Amino acid sequence: MPDVARSDSGRVVDSWESLYRTAAEGTPLTGYYHRNYCARLPPALARSVALPSGAIVKLRAPITDAVQLNLRIWPEDEVLGAIKGRVADAPRVLADRPGFTVHSFAAGRTLADLVGDSGAVGGAYIESLGELFRQMAAVPPALLPACPDDWPRDGDCAGFLRTLVDFTETEVKRRHGKDHKALFSALQVPDDAFARLLERAGSLGERPFVLLHTDIHRGNLIVGPDGRLSLIDWELALFGDPVYEIASHLSRMRYAKPAERRAVGGIWRAALRHSHPAALAGHRRALRIYLDFERLQSVHIDVIRLALGFATCPDPAGREQCVAGIEAVLRAARRPLGMRRVPSRRRIAQALAHAAPAA
Predict the structure, then answer these.
(1) Number of helical (H) and strand (E) elements in the chain, helices listed first
(2) Residue 284: which residues within 8 A CB-CB, separation 6 or more?
(3) Residue 80 CB partners (closer than 8 Å, separation 6+)
(4) 162 CB burial (10 A radius; 0-12, 13-18, 19+)
């Protein structure tokens, strides 16, 4: 008889399915697209994946009705298979079952836990981040999953930007944003901002495409016992212009000091120079364009999410946070939006209150 474990409720745990059922009795760590559960491996399952008994694993279950606000082209498990042994300490896929997958658990704490959501990051972590940039850029494209048939050809940076914009306009603005049109109108968000951004696409030039994580922020960076960083949550990985990686990172990382932004830019350039020196051609101009895209994308994604949060939040303090969040998003995007001034918090609150029943 194989070794088994029992849950607190007495259920026998001797398969991935029974482990998932047991883990799901607890409270999940919920992201936008997955519910994540942590569990300890019973001996039989641990032996099957060459891990010690009691090792912690993460079970990821897709949220099937999640509002899809981010471009995704690959199953996460295929990306993890492609980078295995090439990107340090990336999660390993231990099991793939209908309705959930099991990943190895990254030992350590998130960078957000250690330094806060906007605290100083520090030079040692930035150096470690540079190694991750280098490793990702060095993954051979032949190892990556196949891209969609209509994906831009390798090096077509203008086509890559058009693909990003097309998804945001089609899926975010039109499909999921249609119920919020009145809110965007009340916030005086112009409808032609992406069209004006695409007028600059011709100046992006051509750079060799590389693997992109596209969501490198403090919550996805794990500080291991040795102090080095590793990356989790690869579900938004893309194959595209390497400049977009640093743009998305700078947009999400909330560096406290300009010196840190400059330092990480230097680390990123050094990483690309190591394996793809041609990727640096015209990168400063491209970075400004992609940063503007990130600001515009944030307007539509974050306003929708914050509006939904406002509509379901019973706490006045929580609603005020939603209002402040929208103000910050609009203020950051004021230039690419072409807005002369950002609506006041009072006006934002009124617009949200009016839109809340529909949301």
Answers:
(1) 14, 12
(2) none
(3) 90, 91, 92, 93, 103, 234
(4) middle
Q: Is 52 exposed, middle or buried (0-12, 13-18, 19+ CB in 10 A)?
A: exposed
Length of the chain: 359
Mean pLDDT calculated for residue range 255-272 = 95
Read off the pTM.
0.91
Closest to 103 measured CA to CA, from 79, 137, 125: 79
Joined tokens for residue 230: 């590793």
Q: What does the alpha-carbon distance between residue 314 and residue 224 come to, in Å, rounded to a whole number?
A: 38
- At 88 the three-state DSSP class reads coil
Longest dimension (CA), the chain: 72
Could you tell me the CA-to-CA distances from 195 to 161, 166, 204 in Å, in that order?
A: 12, 10, 15
| Residue 88 · residue 108 · CB < 8 Å | no
For residue 10, give both structure tokens.
């007495």
| Separation CA 209–CA 155 (nearest Å) | 6
Asked whether 242 and 212 are in contact (CB, 8 A), the reply is: yes
Order across the sheet with 221-223: list the strands.
Answer: 109-110, 221-223, 229-231
Other residues' Cβ atoms within 10 Å of the Cβ of residue 253: 20
| pLDDT, tens digit (0-9, with 9 covering 90-100), for 180-211 | 888 999 999 999 999 999 999 999 999 999 99
